[in-house]
Design a protein that fits this description.
Blueprint lengths: L18 H8 L2 H4 L3 E2 L2 E2 L12 H22 L1 H7 L5 H8 L6 H31 L3 H18 L3 H6 L6 H24 L4 H17 L12 H20 L5 H16 L2 H10 L7 H22 L7 E3 L3 H54 L5 H6 L8 H14 L2 H41 L8 H36 L15 H5 L2 H33 L4 E3 L4 H8 L21 H11 L11 H14 L1 H20 L5 H6 L2 H10 L5 H30 L6 H21 L5 H23 L10 H22 L7 H26 L10 H17 L1 H5 L12 H25 L4 H11 L4 H20 L3 E2 L6 H15 L3 H5 L1 H31 L1 E2 L8 H6 L1
Helix pairs in contact: 1-14, 3-5, 3-11, 3-29, 5-11, 5-30, 6-9, 6-10, 6-11, 9-10, 9-25, 10-25, 10-27, 12-14, 12-15, 12-18, 13-15, 13-18, 14-15, 15-17, 15-21, 18-19, 18-21, 19-21, 21-40, 25-27, 25-31, 27-31, 28-29, 28-30, 28-31, 29-30, 30-31, 32-35, 32-37, 33-35, 35-40, 36-38, 36-40, 37-40
Length: 1018
């Protein structure tokens, strides 16, 4: 039986400040996907340039207006006078948080930003009060008198003397640093522990930096120091809210329906891709497009999920309300999952075939090399010493797998597989066509209801006519779906009828006969996936037709979840929902269910050593401080201390203030990341972004002002144009380049803002204009990143490859726990039906964890490390873990639906509950996990290949009792899917062993030993 495995979607958590940009970027698959027709690709624009449509241009216009209005604060004299020398800070806030999505999500992002500034302000005021209290009032007055005398003697203003450090006092400075560095440390820990509150930590740093660098210089209490930043930031947030409400306003319902439309349009591409797979199962040319489609589907759903939570509080006008849209949530989600599972059938088939071909190719090369070496034995000494071949690791495992792979490449087996696919393609054609029509109708109805809101409406006759047509298509889909399994099953069994005797029992003559059924079982798996996909399409279309029949007039929809929200806030119930009231249709996921599953997943016992309370406190504190998060927070503190000391030293305080060293401190803090590879990547991209933004700002300055001190009209005009370009990149550039774009925009507006302020509101320390601002800003960024680079080396550089390897080991440990849970509950798995939603939740969480590692793994190529875990190796390990996670989830979900007799048959055929087989699998899990944690070489002999051992255990007995009557039962076809998923788990473990042996090598090498039978014969 071929190794086929099911799949489940991975999902990612969208940060509030990037929720719309991520949606637009990942959601472009449906606009720019590659259409596959008869193996030919239809070329289209790349995703980055695919946003010139009405919807995306409206978003761009709204965000550009917000950026431009925030920039006008610089050029309008009253606002410049009120906001001060940092009036441009509002534009930076808009770059961080553009008004591009759901207003509620934007408000949450704005609240986290204001919370960070508020916390920094409050702590700064407390710090200032405490610091000034350490200096006696008499000494302060005496120092102030000396300040006046010094100003008269030198003719320098008291303000300049103050900022040059005349009033510095060590007691005050130490108090400032102790209290503010503690706050910065805690904000750094918050940033690492809760990534969604990154804006809170960053803007808390910025406000506290103002107190840290300016507070010790001041002679008296001044609690409004950070107002120069908070005023433009708050004003910019207000402008963004106004733009969201006044410029092309979009309700949450409108945005969610638009996302549903894009998602269903993207799903439609699954049909032609599946058709091509059935027509040409060995053609892997378009697998890259399939991967892009999967990524687009997962990214689109991940970006959509945050908006769904705000539907109960939405006010909208149109045909459909929030309640109707909530009805589509679960059916569309299940359609998405079935679509991903169907696409995985193609990818897994090609991956296993490619791995098998590669293995056989290596074996052929080794045979040829051995023969050549034997023929040229007399002339190889010097040449072989110079060109020594790389050792081949895992040879024992590979040799044991060769027979299976060679058998699957027999001409009769390959011909059987090809004919099975031809039969399945023929019988699947009508159902796939019906699915394509149904998905087109779903997309059309959603788009029509979303576009006819204000100025156009449907005629009553048109609605009835369209509804009748859609109902007819639904009935046709139901009929095709109902007949599909019987038709496909009959066609496949008829093709393999020669392998069964007159009574319908399989003629198990030899292993080759069994392998001739591999095409049948592969197609059974694909058939099951196609059937589930069609059922999911049918459920979505059923909901759409039902809503369409009941919503034939437009109306104003008021929030439906406010009362539920207040009830939820005062009780321990579930979150508010405006979805359907039928609890039997949508399984609910209770916290206690998740807690029960977590307890069963972590059912392990370890001996504990008795410790005194003092030792527990000391060890707990030491462990908390020495974690990766703790090391990162300490680096932020050290970087802050290194730069901040320059601001409060008498000989350098004036220089620091004049050169705007505050921005260098901010760069040093925000440039630090946990892994050294990420830091290297950030260093290059951020410096490049700063240089690009500085050049653009300098060019725009001279275009708008010439050689003057700043023309407000010219600068406002050029800012409007360039702001639109920057905002386009901010919204639609790939997520990994978002920080680069933000830094480019920040440098651009700094050059414009400081130049205009220098000419119209000159103060002490103005950096000039044009080129002067550009090179000063660039120098500050370089200094800040230089300090960050030095700090990242101490106490030691954090090896990102080791951190990723440990993270992968943690995922593998969780998967081993899931496997152990399956073993312990297999005999009573039907009792765990209520745990299925929790199993899906755990599987999605692991998938999100692995997806989040994708970019850090890609950045490993920038790390200077001797670790064996490079980008290539970690990518292969991550892929294997994703497959194991999907397969375990499918086994748990589908296994619970199998009757007890088939579960017992599965346990006997696979050896799932056999103590030796269990030990083999668990030992392999443990050895791989330990190798990932320590980097030690794996033993040369392990109980692998597990797939071969599984097939040898009870596969022959299972096939001997196989009958055509059994294969006609759909439950048995579900059984084949579960078996394929189990073999997929074992196959991925085998691949992990080979991957780690190639990366880490082998230990305890044992040569091929003569079998006991050979010894006895001697």
């Amino acid at each position: 039986m071929a190794s086929e495995s099911e799949s489940m979607p991975s999902s990612t958590t969208a940060a509030s400040q990037q929720q719309r940009s991520t949606s637009r970027h990942n959601g472009q698959t449906q606009d720019n996907d590659i259409e596959i027709k008869k193996g030919k690709k239809k070329k289209k624009l790349p995703p980055f340039l695919g946003h010139f449509n009405a919807s995306d241009l409206k978003i761009l216009f709204r965000c550009s207006i917000a950026f431009w209005v925030s920039s006008l604060f610089i050029f309008i004299e009253p606002t410049l006078e009120a906001f001060g020398a940092a009036a441009f800070f509002g534009c930076i806030v808009t770059l961080f948080l553009p008004p591009s999505g759901v207003i509620f999500v934007f408000l949450l992002g704005g609240f986290t930003m204001l919370a960070g500034m508020g916390l920094g302000w409050a702590w700064g005021v407390i710090t200032e009060k405490a610091a000034l209290a350490t200096r006696p009032a008499g000494q302060t007055l005496a120092r102030l008198q000396l300040l006046g005398q010094e100003a008269q003697r030198t003719g320098t203003s008291t303000q300049v003397l103050v900022f040059n450090g005349f009033m510095l006092d060590n007691r005050v400075t130490i108090t400032y640093f102790c209290m503010l560095l503690l706050f910065i440390y805690l904000m750094a820990r918050l940033r690492m522990a809760v990534p969604k509150l990154a804006l809170t930590a960053v803007f808390g740093w910025i406000v506290s930096d103002v107190f840290l660098t300016i507070g010790p210089l001041l002679p008296s209490f001044s609690g409004t120091i950070p107002a120069v930043l908070i005023k433009p930031a708050a004003a910019a947030l207000g402008v963004n809210v106004a733009c969201s409400l006044l410029i092309f306003p979009e309700s949450t319902s409108h945005l969610v329906l638009a996302s549903f439309h894009k998602l269903t349009t993207t799903i439609a591409a699954t049909v032609p891709m599946t058709k091509q797979y059935l027509e040409q199962p060995s053609d892997a040319e378009a697998d890259g497009d399939v991967q892009k489609l999967r990524a687009g589907l997962i990214g689109g759903w991940s970006a959509l999920e945050p908006a769904l939570n705000f539907l109960p509080f939405d006010i909208s006008f149109g045909y459909w309300g929030a309640h109707d849209i909530e009805r589509l949530k679960e059916p569309v989600k299940r359609l998405l999952m079935s679509c991903l599972i169907l696409l995985d059938a193609r990818l897994i088939f090609h991956e296993r075939r490619h791995a098998s071909d590669k293995l056989l190719e290596k074996d052929d090369k080794d045979d040829k090399s051995a023969e050549t070496e034997k023929n040229e034995k007399n002339a190889k000494n010097a040449r072989n010493a110079k060109n020594e071949k790389k050792p081949r690791y895992g040879k024992h495992q590979i040799m044991e797998s060769l027979n299976l792979h060679q058998m699957l490449h027999e001409p009769d087996v390959e011909r059987s597989t090809e004919e099975s696919f031809q039969t399945l393609e023929r019988v699947s054609q009508p159902l796939m066509d019906s699915c394509a029509r149904a998905i087109a109708i779903i997309s059309e109805v959603i788009e029509a209801s979303n576009s006819h809101r204000w100025f156009s409406k449907f005629a009553a006759g048109d609605i009835q006519k369209a509804h009748q047509s859609h109902s007819d298509i639904l009935e046709e889909l139901r009929r095709q779906s109902r007949d599909y399994h019987n038709t496909a099953n009959l066609g496949l069994l008829t093709l393999h009828d020669h392998l069964f005797d007159h009574s319908g029992t399989f003629m198990d003559n030899d292993s080759l006969s069994r392998h001739k059924l591999s095409g049948l079982f592969i197609c059974f798996t694909v058939e099951e996936r196609i059937g589930r996909f069609a059922e999911a399409v049918e459920k979505v279309l059923t909901e759409v037709v039902s809503i369409e029949s009941n919503r034939q007039r437009r109306k104003l929809w008021m929030p439906s979840g406010l009362n539920k929200f207040f009830a939820w806030a005062t009780t321990s119930g579930k979150a508010p929902s405006s979805g359907p009231g039928d609890d039997d249709k949508v399984p609910k996921l209770e916290k206690k269910t998740i807690a029960e599953l977590d307890k069963r997943l972590n059912n392990s016992s370890r001996p504990t050593r008795k410790q005194s309370p003092i030792s527990k406190i000391v060890l707990g504190t030491a462990n908390w401080l020495s974690t990766d998060d703790g090391v990162f927070a300490m680096r932020v503190v050290v970087a802050t201390l290194a730069v901040g000391v320059i601001a409060v030293t008498k000989s350098t305080a004036g220089f620091f203030y004049r050169e705007k060293g505050l921005w260098g401190l901010i760069m040093a803090q925000t440039g630090l990341v946990l892994g050294f590879a990420d830091f290297t990547y950030a260093l290059v991209t951020r410096i490049g972004g700063t240089l690009l933004g500085g050049v653009i700002g300098m060019v725009c300055w001279y275009i708008g002002s010439g050689l003057g001190t700043g023309n407000p009209y010219g600068l406002a005009a050029v800012t409007a144009v360039m702001g639109t370009v920057l905002m386009y990149f901010r919204l639609y550039a790939p997520p990994q380049h978002t920080t680069t774009v933000i830094l480019s925009g920040a440098t651009f507006i700094l050059v414009i803002g400081y130049g205009y302020i220098d000419g119209h509101r000159p103060t002490y320390g103005n950096p000039g204009f044009g080129y002067e601002v550009f090179y000063r800003r660039t120098l500050l960024v370089l200094i800040g990143f230089g300090i960050g680079f030095i700090v990242s080396l101490f106490p030691w550089p954090t090896s990102q490859s080791r951190s990723i390897a440990k993270g992968l080991a943690g995922v593998l440990h969780a998967e081993a726990d899931h496997y152990a849970l399956l073993l312990s509950s297999w005999n009573h798995l039907e009792d765990d039906i209520r745990l299925i939603p929790a199993v899906e939740s755990v599987g999605i969480h692991l998938a999100e964890t692995l997806t989040a590692m994708q970019d850090p793994i890609g950045n490993l190529r920038y790390e200077f490390s001797s670790s064996a875990f490079d980008t290539h190796t970690c990518t292969k390990i991550k892929h294997s873990l994703e497959q194991i996670n999907r397969n375990l989830t499918i086994i748990h979900i589908l296994g619970a639906s199998l009757p007890r007799a088939l579960r017992d048959r599965f346990a006997k055929a696979s050896g799932l509950l056999h103590h030796r087989a269990t030990a083999d699998v668990m030992v392999t899990f443990a050895v791989i996990e330990q190798a990932l944690k320590t980097g030690d070489a794996l033993p040369s002999r392990l109980p692998t290949p597990l797939v071969v051992r599984c097939l040898e255990h009870g596969h022959s007995a299972d096939m001997a009792t196989l009958t055509k009557q059994m294969l006609r039962d759909r439950q048995y076809r579900t059984y084949t899917v579960v078996m394929g998923s189990y073999l997929g788990v074992l196959g991925m473990l085998d691949d992990l062993v080979l991957t780690l042996k190639e990366a880490l090598g082998e230990s305890y090498v044992v040569p091929d030993i003569i079998s006991l039978g050979d010894v006895e014969s001697r």
